[in-house]
Amino acid sequence: MEDMRGNNTVLLVGTAAGEALFSHASRERRFYTLPLAVRRLSGTEDRLNLLLDEGFLRERALFPGLRLGVKGELRSFNNRSGRGSRLVLSVFARELWDAPGEDVNEVFLTGSLCKAPTLRRTPMGREICDLLLAVNRRYGRADYLPCIAWGRAAEEAGGWAVGQSLSLRGRLQSRKYTKLLPEGSQERVAYEVSVVEFV
Fold it and tell me: Which domains does the chain have, with CATH numbers?
């Protein structure tokens, strides 16, 4: 793995899976989202959201099928619109480049547990632990990032207390699920960091 210093670093290589669409404006800058498809070793594809400053769009044409590398930070946004997932995760791009070759999905985070871990078992009997990690940004803000650990790592994490500081290496993944609402069911996408190891 590349040297990934800092408390929040993401390194991805994948394929642009759509057009860059306007997201929002902040401090007189415009930001765009671009879906990036990153294939796992199993062949399953994670579709991850990149958040790009308008400057990246002036530097290059971004179109579906383009192979891209990105280095940035994992950001969270609390969606209060009532539509879609409540917690939206995206990769805020700091660097972007043309990247032929193998897909890459690496995340390094350092933060504190802000919610008690939930240790449970899958129907197949495998241990799994849900964690919510608060990772500080510069300027006094924090991102709240859902993480999931498996097996022995899950057992270890299940005994930790709120406020525990930890560092981890993992991968950002997406998964579809069905949300049951009064007006019917709705398909949504959840994002989480799958822990490879605590470091």
Answer: 8-103 (2.40.50.140), 108-198 (2.40.50.140)
The DSSP call for residue 30 is E
**Residue 2 confidence (pLDDT):** 45
CB 74 within 8 A of CB 49: no
Which residues are CB-neighbours of 142 under 8 A, at least 6 positions away? 111, 134, 135, 136
Quote the pLDDT of residue 87. Answer: 79
What are 175's strand-pairing partners? 190
* Cβ 36 vs Cβ 29: under 8 Å: no
Quote the CA–CA distance of 72 and 51 in Å, as a whole number: 9
In the predicted model, what is the mean pLDDT of the chain?
90
Q: What is the CA radius of gyration of the chain?
A: 17
In the numeric block, which tokens belong to residue 172?
């950002």
**Could you tell me how many helices (H) and strands (E) the chain has, helices first?**
2, 12
| Contact yes or no for 144/175 (Cβ under 8 A) | no
| Residue entry with tokens 């929002």 | 24
Within the chain, residue ranges assigned H as helices are 54-59, 151-158
Strand, helix or coil at 37?
Answer: strand
